[in-house]
Amino acid sequence: MPPSGRERSEPPVRLFFVVNPTAGHGRTLQVWRRLEPHLAQWGEYDVGFTTAPRHGEALAREAARAGFDRVVAMGGDGTLNEVVNGLIGERAALGIIPSGTGNDFVRSLGVPRDPLAAARIAFTAPVRPVDVGLHLETGRHFINIAGIGFDAEVAEEVNTRRILKAIPGTFPSLVAALITLIRYRNPEMTIRLDGKEVRRRVLLMAVGNARYYGGGMQILPQATVDDGYFTVLIAGDVGKAELLEVLPKLYTGRHVDHPKAEFLLAREVHVAAGEPVALHLDGDVVGHLPATFRLLPRAIQVVAPEGAPAGVWAG
């Protein structure tokens, strides 16, 4: 028993920061340089800078196995995805300081955009388990949303145009959506949700664990990060004029009442098509259909601030 009148204190946590210096067109490195002098006030830390694709995954795994309690992704959604893949199966928790282009997963959790506030949370806030998705064909994990069809084409447009990639927020995705709209044709897809098969001509599908993508589009407003299910949107055969009308509603989640928007829950999703249809994981285009996604319940611990949007947590 501790002596009377004294509180039991938690041991300090050790953090490892995975910093992508090129994220946000170099903005992340600038943020790190302003942030780093303040970090010692909260605890012990070390840092690694990514130098190549997938390097963040290796840095995260090495940090976890070196005994760091928390590994903090500092960049955009691509950096976050790499760190998630490095932490699957490890004991270290995931922290996030958003400083890249999209920063969508943190919107669901309520992580502040201010780097200093996010850093304090990374050191001091409690951790909670969240679900993770697995793309069976590549073995890659995703923590936010996998997209198929129109949104994957939009993601590819953003990623391949340097001028769009350099701009934070929703503007790049909106411009890319308008460019993609000119040439895109809705493919017919065969969709199997937990064994139940349907066929649809589909604009896009979103298979997600959280609510936002595309720099702030609230595509899955009912999604819960720890309920053991994907939230799935099947957006049916929406025409170009119809899409232009509904596009602004994606930012507020008001598309849920659209007659061609079908929302479902599933633990495993398989999608195929008779033509090449692109897909992305957390905004990173990884190939084409067919694809199978499997939900891994509570597969990673995440530093979770107080005050997340209502309904994000099931428990």
Kindly describe this structure.
The chain has 315 residues and is of the alpha+beta class. Helices cover 26% and strands 31% of the residues. The chain has 9 helices and 16 strands. The strands form 3 sheets. The protein has a 6-stranded antiparallel beta sheet, covered by helices on one side. The protein is globular, with a radius of gyration of 20 Å. The model is unreliable at 1-9 (pLDDT under 50).
Biggest sheet architecture: 6 strands, antiparallel
Unreliable stretches, pLDDT < 50, 5 or more residues? 1-9
Number of domains: 2
Find the CATH topology of the largest domain. Tumour Suppressor Smad4
Strand arrangement, largest sheet?
6-5-16-13-8-9
> Radius of gyration over alpha carbons?
20 Å
List the helices and strands in order: EHEHEHEHHEEEHHHEEEEHEEEEE
The whole-number mean of residue pLDDT values reads: 90
Q: Helical content, roughly?
A: 25-40%
Number of helices: 9
> In whole angstroms, how far apart are the ends?
31 Å
Question: What's the count of strands?
Answer: 16
Hey, roughly how much beta strand do the residues contain? Answer: 25-35%
CATH architecture verdict of the largest domain: Sandwich
CATH class of the largest domain: Mainly Beta
**Bulk shape:** globular
Q: What is the SS-derived class?
A: alpha+beta
Topology:
Blueprint lengths: L13 E6 L7 H9 L8 E6 L5 H11 L4 E6 L1 H11 L5 E6 L6 H5 L5 H10 L2 E9 L4 E3 L2 E5 H11 L1 H4 L5 H13 L4 E6 L2 E6 L2 E5 L21 E6 L4 H7 L14 E6 L1 E6 L4 E4 L2 E5 L2 E13 L12
Parallel strand pairs: 1-2, 1-3, 3-4
Antiparallel strand pairs: 5-6, 5-16, 7-10, 7-14, 8-9, 8-13, 10-11, 11-12, 13-16, 14-15
Helix pairs in contact: 2-3, 6-8
